[in-house]
Write a structure and sequence with these properties.
Number of helices: 6
Helix content: 10-25%
Structural class: alpha+beta
Distance between the termini: 53 Å
Radius of gyration: 34 Å
Largest sheet: 7 strands, mixed
């Protein structure tokens, strides 16, 4: 708006208010001079400060002021016109020493964008000081080493601790609980190894997003990798809280044929023939991990280590009617899980038994997590309210009084306990893979704020 003219000179009202009368105003009287997105004069809700706002803040025409918050030691533009001198347009600015001044529009001044937060905006923290500013939205997180996070938050599993009441540590004949294990534990028998094994037990925050899928962290590996079990897809707000069939890729049988003991194998016939369940795991992995690219056009397989998947076919006991395999003896009779695996039953890409670095959870890993043979547990992280497969054989039944033989494989049952079922039944499929030891993440691991592999 024009205050006055003189010859070829045009003087605008911001000059009259703040130079002549020293009476700043926040009114914008002309509709033509109101710039908003809704008026279509702006594409985005951002502009510059006005000279009147500078005056209210403490600025005075050609009077130095280094003691107010708009002083920066540099000069920068306002969006308020000063005058047109017949040749050039002149606009108000904030000068080097903090005074309000003016400059020709062709001058190179600083730009300090101005925005306006909505009414009702809440702050997360802070008090407005430069040391502790009001924090409106979370700052970008610095990625953290997932292995170090796990290691730092672990406790030895053979001592009394916050969630373990026994002086000698966790009791694997009982389910996980607030007195028998809840958190991250260091397997004491691996304490002196280069990479001690850390495992999650009970009701824990171990959610992670990798390759756009939700996973649960099971444990670390013998080489410092981090083993994960599939847990569905994030919901619309990025949370990972799937249960039941949503935590599985599909339902499948373990093997098409269950009439001979060899069909307990993840592969059989000298480990040359894939089981039905392995074919399903590999097909899913090929499409959803190996052929899928991240933002840098790398296959998600490059994030993974070639870890061991154990299909323990060692024979513990035989009888007239059954062959009982290692997991049956360890978990059913002795209640003493183990992560050891004989060489013949180690499945890796490097030994040629796997095409992709993916497999299934073992029954022993279930026991470390909090599951027990035929004792319900609905409060630990592997409970989904559905039955799904492990890759651990339990027994082969060849009873002469029944019409056919059948192999039985360990499962996580609907009540969260470890059970055994015939390999020809349809149960859930949850692939397992292992991130490399160098994996970095953001987030906290809760279902609302999962770890995100970066």
């Amino acid at each position: 708006s024009i205050a006055s003219t003189s010859g070829n000179n045009i003087y605008y009202n911001p000059r009259y208010r703040n130079y002549v009368n020293k009476t700043p105003s926040l009114e914008c009287s002309r509709e033509d001079d109101k710039f908003t997105v809704s008026s279509s004069k702006l594409k985005y809700p951002v502009g510059l400060i006005t000279v009147d706002e500078v005056v209210y803040a403490g600025g005075v025409y050609y009077t130095d002021n280094k003691a107010y918050y708009l002083y920066t030691g540099e000069w920068y533009w306002s969006m308020s016109p000063y005058c047109f001198d017949g040749n050039s347009s002149i606009v108000w600015d904030v000068d080097y020493p903090g005074a309000i001044s003016n400059a020709y529009v062709a001058s190179a001044g600083g730009i300090r964008p101005v925005i306006s937060l909505k009414q009702g905006t809440k702050y997360l923290s802070g008090n407005g000081t430069k040391e502790t500013p009001f924090l409106i939205t979370p700052l970008p997180e610095k990625p953290k080493s997932l292995y170090e996070l796990i290691k730092t938050n672990s406790t030895l599993d053979n001592i009394k601790s916050k969630y373990v009441s026994s002086e000698i540590g966790g009791d694997f004949s009982k389910i996980s609980s607030n007195t028998n294990g809840r958190g991250i534990y260091e397997l004491h028998t691996t304490q002196s190894a280069q990479y001690p094994i850390y495992y999650y037990r009970g009701e824990v925050d171990n959610n992670i997003i990798f390759a756009d899928f939700c996973w649960k962290i099971i444990r670390t590996t013998e080489t410092g990798g981090i083993k994960l079990i599939y847990n569905g897809e994030p919901n619309n707000d990025g949370k990972c809280n799937n249960m039941g069939e949503e935590a599985e890729i599909k339902k499948t049988i373990y093997n098409d044929d269950i009439l001979y003991s060899k069909y307990i194998g993840y592969k059989y016939d000298n480990d040359e023939v894939d089981s039905t369940i392995k074919k399903e795991v590999d097909a899913w992995y090929k499409t959803n991990i190996d052929e899928k690219k991240d933002a840098s056009e790398k296959s998600y397989t490059t994030y993974l280590e070639d870890t061991i998947f154990c299909n323990d076919r060692s024979i513990a006991v035989t009888s007239d009617t059954n062959i009982y395999y290692g997991a049956s003896n360890r978990l059913g009779k002795n209640k003493s899980p183990s992560l050891a695996c004989n060489d013949e039953d180690k499945f890796t890409v490097s030994n040629g038994k796997l095409k992709y670095p993916v497999g299934l959870i073992t029954a022993d890993e279930l026991a470390y997590a909090g599951g027990v043979y035929y004792i319900a547990n609905t409060t630990y992280y592997l409970y989904t309210d559905n039955t799904y497969w492990t890759m651990s054989p339990i027994d082969f039944n060849h009873n002469e009084f029944i019409t056919y033989n059948y192999v039985r494989i360990g499962v996580v049952a609907e009540k969260g306990d470890i059970e055994l079922y015939g390999g020809g039944q349809n149960f859930g499929l949850r692939p397992v893979l292992a991130l490399t030891s160098s994996t970095k993440v953001t987030g906290t691991g809760t279902s609302e704020n999962p770890y995100i592999v970066v």
